[in-house]
Amino acid sequence: MELRVLHYFVAIVQAKNISKAASMHVSQPAISRQIKQLEDEVGQTLFERGHRQIHLTSAGYYLYQRATEILNLVDKTKYKLAQPEIISGTLDLGAGESIALQPIMNVIQQILHAYPDVHINLRSADSFGIEQKLDQGLIDFGIIMGEQSAKINNYNFYPLTSKNKWGVLMPSNHPLTKKQAVSPADLLHQQLLMPMRINQMNSLRLWAGTNLEQYQIIGTYNLTYNAALLAHTGACLVLSYEDLANLDAIGNLAFRPLAPALFDSNTLIWKKDTYLSPLGKLFLNLIKQENSKS
Questions:
Q1: Does pLDDT of 17 surpass 80?
Q2: 264 touches 166 (CB < 8 A)
C-alpha cells in the first residue's frame, strides 16, 4: 500500500468525485486504475459509484480514517526531521479531564507565550485511549489518571504531584448535601452513574468495599458535563472528580467529596526509544520544573 495511492484515495473522498481529484493529481484513467489496484490489494470495494458523486462503503470509510492518520503522521515525521534545534511545531497532548491538570496548562501557556510559532493539540481520552494514541504515534505525551495499567513499563513515565479528588455530584436539594462528605454507606439505595471504566478503577472499588455490590448503578459515562446535566434533573448521583462541572452554570447542583478522602494520581507518559523534538524536550523539562514547586 503506497503513500502516493493513499494520497489519491483521500483526495477522491474529499472531492467526492474522481474527475475533480484527478485534476489535482494525475489523469482520471491513471487515478481510477490506482484505486482499482488498491481495492484489489485490500480485497474490499471502497466506493459506491454514483452518476455524479461517489460514496464510501463501510470498508472505504475505515480506510479513509486510517489513511488520514497515516498521512498526517508522515507529514509530522517529515516536519520534525527537517527542523533544526529551534522551538517550533506542534505539541500533541492526550489526557483525561481534571482541575489537577492546571499546572500542565500553566507550562503550555509559558511555551505559547515564549514561542509564538508553537501550536498545541489537546485530546481528551481515558487511559486506554491515550496509550492507544501514543502507540499509533498520534500524540507526543499522555497523562493517565488513577492506577497505572500493566502497559506502563512500555513507556517512559513521570509521576506528577497534582492529584484528582473524588466526590459526588447531586442536586443541591438532595439530603446528602447536608453532609460535609459522603461515605460508602451513604450511597446505598441511591441511583448512581459511574465512570465508564469503573471495573478497572481499583481505588474506587476498594473505597466502596462490599457496598459496591449493593449499589444501584444505573449506567456509566465518559463526559462529565453530560453526566452533570443528568444529576441536575435528580435522576441519579454521579461519582466524579472535583471541579469538572460548573455548578453555577448548570444550577441546582452540588458536589461533596468522599469520606474517607480518595485521590487519583496523574502520570505523564511518552514512548520509549522515541525521538523528542526540541519542543517535546522543552515541555518535559518545564513539567519537571513545575512539578518540583509542589
A1: no
A2: yes
| DSSP per-residue letters across 136-190 | TTS-SEEEEESSPPGGGGGEEEEEEEEEEEEEEEE-TTSGGGGSSSB-GGGGTTS
Q: Which helix (H) or strand (E) holds 217?
A: strand 216-221
Q: Assign domain 3-82 to a CATH class.
A: mainly alpha
Fold of 89-162+265-293: D-Maltodextrin-Binding Protein; domain 2 (3.40.190)
Q: Phi first, then psi: what are they for 290, rounded to 5°?
A: -65, -40
What is the bridge-based pairing of β-strands 89-95 and 141-145? parallel
Location of C-alpha cell 503522521: 73
Answer whether 89-162+265-293 and 164-263 agree in fold: yes
User: What does the pLDDT look like over 81-133, one tens digit per residue?
Assistant: 776 667 888 999 999 888 889 999 999 999 999 998 899 999 988 888 898 99
259 phi and psi angles, rounded to 5 deg:
-135, 125
The count of residues in the chain is 294
Burial of 204 (0-12, 13-18, 19+ CB in 10 A): buried
Q: pLDDT value at position 200? A: 60
What is the C-alpha to C-alpha distance for residues 114 and 104, in angstroms, rounded to an integer?
Answer: 16
